[in-house]
Write a sequence for this structure.
């Protein structure tokens, strides 16, 4: 049989349905005969239009990446997904990539190829990387974005460290300068960054109060080490925090929700307190009454970890070293609600949007790859 030329075999899965398997493609390839210079490539999730994940995310076949100078290819073992990915797929994130794009920025895996000039990692190294395009079987990233994982750490936990814990170390140590004995109030404390804030706050010697939605999530917050946890749906947050702090309020508020929660917790800030703006998972950006900050002498402090790193890339190394030290001493342990198969990535993001998850959701491209050490 003559060799077909210029054929591209592309499986697509829209919103987790109608999957064309790799086996089916192999059958097509056998029927057509050998394709010189062609291979099935890798699978990756791709967004070609903005909207809800189950409507616009597609599973496609792409060529395997080849690293250029200063870059490496990672065989992906685990990808952490969270609210920023959901916002990006919807088109609501502050830094939108151009279409089409592959979601997923929190990657753990094994280096399989290195470009020229790379000296910090070697082929075979187990690494974590904060880079775009993670929801794929392979990803091409800057070598300087890669950090070796501790030997005993699974890929699932490794992919959860950089974003949530990096953001939180920066927020509490650099921006808030949280001190031992101070009170830290954490909103969305059962979520990804919230759970990290509870653990790091405790490691820094703070008294931690966590807010979460529902009794199960409140129980989870206690399990993370919070001194006190409240269900904000059933509690007068302002009165509860005042009671828990003998009327003084929280020295530092870690606020990731926005909307009505912001207006409740700003009333809980202590004199000379710091109100950290982490994000807006409610979808509503609250307008702060500046006269309130003046009267109570507190600071409203922005936390943009990504911009901090962009301005001073070397900060990522010291940030990572601090995280690894906290992990090695047992002070932090990523909260993972589920490890889900690759073909459920779109539904996993939808579940995050519907508040069906706690902590981090991890996607594994191959069965069992996320739990490897």
């Amino acid at each position: 049989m003559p060799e077909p030329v210029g054929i591209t075999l592309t499986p697509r899965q829209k919103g987790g349905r109608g999957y064309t398997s790799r086996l089916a493609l192999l059958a097509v390839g056998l029927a057509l005969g050998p394709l010189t210079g062609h291979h099935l490539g890798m699978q990756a999730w791709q967004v070609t239009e903005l909207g809800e994940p189950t409507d616009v995310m597609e599973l496609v076949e792409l060529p395997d990446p080849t690293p250029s100078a200063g870059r490496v290819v990672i065989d992906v073992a685990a990808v952490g997904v969270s609210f920023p990915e959901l916002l990006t797929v919807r088109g609501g994130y502050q830094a939108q990539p151009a279409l089409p794009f592959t979601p997923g920025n929190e990657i753990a895996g094994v280096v399989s190829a290195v470009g020229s000039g790379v000296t910090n990692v070697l082929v075979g190294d187990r690494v974590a990387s904060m880079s775009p395009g993670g929801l794929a079987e392979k990803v091409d990233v800057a070598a300087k974005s890669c950090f070796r994982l501790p030997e005993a750490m699974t890929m699932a936990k490794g992919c959860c460290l950089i974003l949530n814990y990096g953001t939180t170390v920066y927020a509490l140590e650099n921006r808030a300068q949280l001190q031992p004995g101070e009170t830290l109030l954490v909103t969305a404390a059962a979520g990804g960054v919230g759970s990290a804030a509870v653990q790091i706050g405790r490691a820094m010697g703070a008294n931690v109060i966590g807010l979460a939605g529902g009794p199960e999530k409140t129980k989870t917050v206690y399990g993370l080490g919070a001194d006190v946890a409240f269900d904000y749906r059933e509690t007068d947050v302002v009165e509860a925090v005042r009671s828990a702090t003998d009327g003084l309020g929280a020295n530092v508020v870690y606020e990731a929700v926005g909307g009505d929660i912001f207006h409740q917790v700003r009333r809980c800030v202590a004199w000379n307190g710091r109100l950290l703006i982490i994000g807006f998972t409610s979808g509503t950006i609250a307008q702060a009454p500046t006269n309130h900050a003046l009267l109570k002498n507190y600071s409203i402090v922005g936390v943009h970890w990504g911009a901090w790193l962009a301005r001073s890339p070397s900060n990522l190394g010291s940030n990572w070293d601090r995280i690894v030290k906290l992990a090695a001493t047992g002070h932090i342990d990523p909260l993972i609600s589920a490890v889900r198969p690759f073909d459920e990535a779109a539904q996993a993001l939808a579940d995050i949007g519907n508040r069906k998850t706690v902590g981090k959701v991890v996607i594994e491209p191959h069965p069992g790859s996320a739990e490897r050490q």
User: Anything to note?
Assistant: The first strand starts at residue 42 and ends at 47. The first helix runs from residue 22 to 32. The chain has 13 helices and 15 strands. Confidence is low (pLDDT under 50) at residues 1-39.
